[in-house]
Design a protein that fits this description.
The protein has eight helices and four strands; from the N terminus they run αααααββαββαα. The protein is globular, with a radius of gyration of 21 Å. Helix content is about 60%, strand content about 5%. It is mainly alpha-helical and about 200 residues long. A hairpin with a 4-residue loop joins β1 and β2. The chain has three domains: about 80 residues, no CATH class; about 50 residues, no CATH class; about 55 residues. It binds zinc ion. It comes from Funneliformis caledonium.
């Protein structure tokens, strides 16, 4: 009986929007336990089906990320629900403008300036931003390697990883741009409509 109820609950959840799934997960410990599993295929499937059924954005699958595959819950939180700076917790007014796929944070300008550094890696190349914590972590990893050969391999591996990651975030930024444009169009149409009526 218990299992049948659980199956029914799973099925119902697939018709609930991701935003409401979030609310539902805060109702009680039991719902939270069911909806909060990040490595369960069944749970990921609920969120995926809900996202595909109820939303037009985001429609790409969750990103692979830098060091971890993103679960559906994190993806929804990052793209739709989070409205505070991940670092200082102040409210963000421009959710797309303050989104930083490169460093996996939504953050205000002040925090960005504190956490990122500007560097030109080689002469003639454009200035790039780097997240200080990422640099420290990479440096520790590099320092911990035993010999020159291992370091060379590590550099090649990192270069490939950066390439893959940059391609990936390009797709997600493009997805954001399409959504911003759609949102803008909808607002223009709505404004026109109000002016006429
Ligand atoms: Zn901040």
């Amino acid at each position: 009986m218990e299992n049948i109820l659980l199956e029914i609950f799973h099925e119902i959840c697939k018709y609930v929007s991701p935003k409401d799934l979030y609310s539902l997960s805060t109702v009680c410990k039991r719902y939270r336990k069911i909806l909060w599993l990040t490595h369960s295929m069944k749970c990921q499937n609920i969120w995926k089906t809900s996202r595909q059924r109820c939303l037009t954005y985001p429609n790409l699958p969750p990103p692979n990320g830098w060091n971890e595959d993103w679960p559906e819950q994190k993806y929804i939180w990052f793209t739709l629900l989070s409205d505070k700076c991940f670092i200082c917790k102040d409210r963000l007014l421009e959710k797309f403008h303050d989104r930083c796929w490169e460093f996996r944070v939504n953050c205000c300008k002040d925090c960005f300036d504190k956490c990122a550094v500007r560097r030109r890696l080689r002469r003639g190349q454009p200035i790039q931003y780097f997240w200080t914590k990422d640099i420290q972590k990479a440096y520790e990893e590099y320092k911990g390697l035993g010999n020159e050969e291992e370091r060379q391999d590590w550099v090649v591996k990192m270069q490939r990883k950066v390439q893959r990651f940059l391609q990936e975030i390009f797709d997600y930024k493009l997805q954001d741009t399409v959504e911003i444009t759609r949102d803008l169009q909808a607002r223009l149409i709505s404004n026109n409509h109000h002016q006429r009526t």
